[in-house]
């Protein structure tokens, strides 16, 4: 069975705020900015 997308869960697990809270998360955002990604996080 394929699960239906859950927007709230997606935002909470991979959202910008969650990424910003941890050091590694901030590194992820930094790396994505450096690569010139249009979307940094969900």
Give short descriptive properties of this protein.
42 residues, mainly alpha, 64% helix
Overall pLDDT level = 94
Report the portion of residues in β strands: under 5%
The tally of strands reads 0
- Helicity, in percent? 55-70%
Give a quick precis of the structure:
The protein is mainly α. The chain contains three helices and no strands. It is globular and about 35 Å long.
Explain what the structure shows.
With 42 residues, the chain is an all-alpha fold. Helix content is 64%, strand content 0%.
Topology:
Blueprint: H1 7-14, H2 16-21, H3 23-35
């Amino acid at each position: 069975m394929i699960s239906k997308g859950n927007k709230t869960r997606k935002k909470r697990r991979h959202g910008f705020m969650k990424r910003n809270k941890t050091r590694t998360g901030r590194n992820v955002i930094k790396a994505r900015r450096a690569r010139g990604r249009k979307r940094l996080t969900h």
